Amino acid sequence: MTAPPQEMKRPVNKDGRQYRKSQATKMLILETAVNCFVKYGYHQTTALKIAEVSGLSRGAMRHHFVSKIDITRAAIDYLYEKRLQAFREAVTSIPADVDRIVFAVEAFWSQVNHPLYMAFFELSVASRTDSELAQVLRPAEETFNRTYMEMAAELFPEWSQRPDTLRVALNLARYLLEGMAVDLVARESVEAQGVLHLLERLLRDLRDRPDLRG
């Protein structure tokens, strides 16, 4: 008996109107989810809340994402890619006559004051007591940190032979600026400029030392 012919699958037309509409809907869901994480908190944000705020029916949203954790996984990828894209754009736009340390500090400070970073911070805090979220967030953080280090090494090639010192410098900048950004949310104002200048001097000192013990 001859087997029935298999149904031919139509190739995805990425230029088609239906595809563009689908991508636009996905982006709407992700941006809405990020905004809800910031406004309501992760645990108070439900799939139903995301659908309601985005103006979609629950069924329409389930067509793209089955559950809240699926939306969260895609939102985390979206958040990290946006941060890396902003960093790439900042790096490639540095004028030749500008101190790269000053430029990098100001660019990072600008990043962590963006609403997107507040969503990332909310997810980080929520993951402490949510094992499902932690399992999604941790691998994405590791990938982000690795890519961030690679991009920083390209930005500061003079430190290429001193990766441990570069890592310390990056962690110093990151921990300080991220902590200041969190404090800014709580207090609504911080005396940032003097701290930023001190950070720049410390980074230059690390750059000019022969090694971490120097």
Please outline the helices and strands.
Blueprint: H1 17-40, H2 47-54, H3 58-62, H4 68-92, H5 100-112, H6 115-126, H7 131-155, H8 163-187, H9 192-208
Describe this structure in words.
This protein has 214 residues and is mainly α. It has nine helices and no strands. It has helices at residues 17-40, 47-54, 58-62, 68-92, 100-112, 115-126, 131-155, 163-187, 192-208. The longest helix has 25 residues, at 68-92. It is elongated and about 60 Å long. Mean pLDDT is 84; it is low at 4-10.
Which descriptors would you attach to this protein?
214 residues, mainly alpha, 9 helices, elongated
- The coarse overall form would be elongated
Sheet having the most strands: none
Unreliable sequence segments: 4-10
Beginning-to-end CA distance, first to last residue:
82 Å
Helix content: over 70%
Please, how many helices?
9
Radius of gyration, Cα only, in angstroms?
22 Å
Order of helices and strands: HHHHHHHHH
- Please report the total strand number as a whole number: 0
Beta-strand share of residues:
under 5%
Give the structural class.
mainly alpha
Residue-averaged pLDDT: 84
